Amino acid sequence: MRILVTGAKGMLGSALLPCLEPRHQVRGVDLDDFDISKEPAVEKAFLELRPELVFHLAAYTDVDGCEVNPQKAEEVNVAGARNVARACAEIGAALLYVSTDYVFDGSQDRPYREEDCPHPRSAYGRSKLRGEQFVEALVARHCIVRTSWLYGPQGKNFVATILKLAREREELQVVSDQRGSPTYTRHLALKLEQLLRANAYGIYHVTGAGHCSWFEFAQAIVKAGGYNRVRVAPITSQDLGRPARRPANSVLENRRLLQSGLGALPHWTEGLAQYVEEGRRSGELDLEGAESRKDSLQPEGAGR
Question: Is residue 144 part of a domain?
Fold first, then answer.
C-alpha cells in the first residue's frame, strides 16, 4: 500500500515509519517538504504522491504555545487537518488522524470513552477537536486515534526533561492534580500499524495502560534513571499558573481497542522502563549526575 506520513520527523513519526516500511511503500513528509496550512501545496503534493492511506501526525502540540498564539494553532491544527482531509477526499485516500486527550475537559470521575462528548478547555484542545470534525465530515474512510502524554526517542518530552533536571537539581516540584496515561511512542506506533492492518475506522482511544499524575510519573522517572537522591515534591496547577488550562482527568478508556480484539498497549511503567534502557544504551539519555538546584516543573507542551 502507498502510505504518506505527515510530521514524519516528529517523535511519533520517527517511531511509526520503521513499523510501516517492511510491508508498505511509505513516504514521510514534514515542514521542509510542504506546509500543511497551505491548501494548494497540500493538494499538489497529494496529487503527485497519490497515497492510498495518510497518517496525519503533523500538529502544533505546544499546549501553552497554542494558548498564547491561537492563530498558529488555527493554521496548523485546524486548517492543516482540513487541507489534508480535503486532499484525501479528492484522491479517495483513507485517513488516520492522531488527536489528543485534551479534547475533554477533565470534569468526569471516570476514564473517557470514545463516545463521550468532547469539551476542550484549551486552545490546543479546541484546535485538535476541530481537526477531528473536519476529518469526520470530509473523509469517508477515517480513523481518529486519541492518545496522551507521549514520550519517546527523537523528540522533546517529559521523561527526557525530568531526567535532565534530575542530573542538575536536588528537588523538583511537579503538578499532582492532573491525571493521564503516559504513552511510549514505540508502543503507540506498533498499535497504529495494527489498526491499519485491521481496516479500523471511527474513533479509538489508544494510550499506555494504567494512569498516574504528572507528580507520580516524575517519581517513577527519577527512580528509573537511578536518581534516588532527588526529591520530587507535589504542587498544584494553580500554584504553577501556566497559560493553558489542563484537564484534571484526561485518562482515556481504550474501550473500542479492546472490543476489536487488538489488545491494549503495555502498562505505562513498562514503556518508561524500555525507553530509559534504550536511551541508556544509545546514549540519547545522559544519565550522569551534576550539580544541584531547585525548580518547579509543568510538562511543556504535553500535547497528545
Answer: yes
User: Hey, which residues are catalytic here?
Assistant: 124
pTM: 0.94
Q: Quick check: is 54 in a domain?
A: yes
Could you give the C-alpha distances from 283 to 129, 289, 291, 301, in angstroms and in order? 37, 14, 20, 24
Question: Range of 31's domain?
Answer: 2-150+181-205
Q: CB within 8 A of 181, min separation 6: which ones?
A: 101, 148, 149, 207, 208, 209, 210, 211, 212, 251, 252, 268
Phi then psi for 179, rounded to 5 degrees?
-120, 140
Structural domains in the chain (count): 1
Contact 199, 143 (CB under 8 A): no
CA distance 77 to 195: 23
Asked whether residue 287 is domain-assigned, the answer is no
Instruction: Classify residue 118: in a domain, yes or no.
Output: yes
Q: What is the mean pLDDT of each run of 10 residues along the chain (304 residues)?
A: 97 97 96 96 97 98 97 98 98 98 97 98 98 98 98 94 94 97 98 96 98 98 95 95 95 97 97 96 77 49 60
Q: Give the N- to C-terminal CA distance of the chain in Å, as an integer.
A: 27
| 75: CATH | 3.40.50.720
